[in-house]
Amino acid sequence: MKIGVLGTSNSILKNGWVPTLESISAPEDTVLNYSCGANCSAYGLFALDHFEILDKVDSLVIDFTLNDQSFCDAGVLQYGEVESYYYNLVKRVCESGVEPVALLFFNQKYLSRDSFPVREMHLDICRHFGVEVIDLFSIVQLLTADHNPNTMLARSEVI
User: Are 66 and 8 in contact (CB under 8 A)?
Assistant: First the structure.
């Protein structure tokens, strides 16, 4: 199986999740990383054609939630623009027969909230197309009793 990764700097970290995926994948599996830092889902649409990704992979992990929200927060993109980019990205992947998986990273500043707008939008789009989602925001919220961003990620001592 050929697994593609299309995302942001979270997907190109030297000791990040992609090298871990590569190390635990079956020997016959190949991981192809088309990610680029400091970008958003508009890059994803560009990359699909530029690298002919949909002709090269069986499954595609999509990681744009964190940067899409950051671009909206900074006023670089409007919410509607991000929605259009992400919707069309997911739609094209689904229509191609490639199996998409959405990986949703988040910024720690949102931990004191129940959610954040771009996450909700990405979840809605994924539900619309039946895309599997790995939502790290939900996972962290479930794993922590207190949602205080100042203490929840602090190391606790084991006695």
Answer: yes
The identity of residue 101, as a single letter, is V
Query: What type of residue is 38?
Result: A
Residue 42: which of 76, 17, 74 has the closest Cα?
A: 76
Three state DSSP letters for 5-44: EEECHHHCCCCCHHHHHHHHCCCCCEEEECCCCCCCHHHH
Position 159 in a domain? no
| Tally of domains within the chain | 1
151 falls within a domain: no
Q: What does the pLDDT profile of the chain (159 residues) look like in tens digits? A: 999 999 999 999 999 999 999 999 999 999 999 999 999 999 999 999 999 999 999 999 999 999 999 999 999 999 999 999 999 999 999 999 999 999 999 988 888 888 899 999 999 999 999 999 999 999 888 777 565 666 655 554 443
Q: In what order do the strands lie in the sheet with 2-7?
A: 30-33, 2-7, 59-63, 99-104, 132-135
Q: Answer whether residue 157 is part of any domain.
A: no
Q: Which domain holds residue 134?
A: 2-143
CATH number of 12's domain: 3.40.50.1110
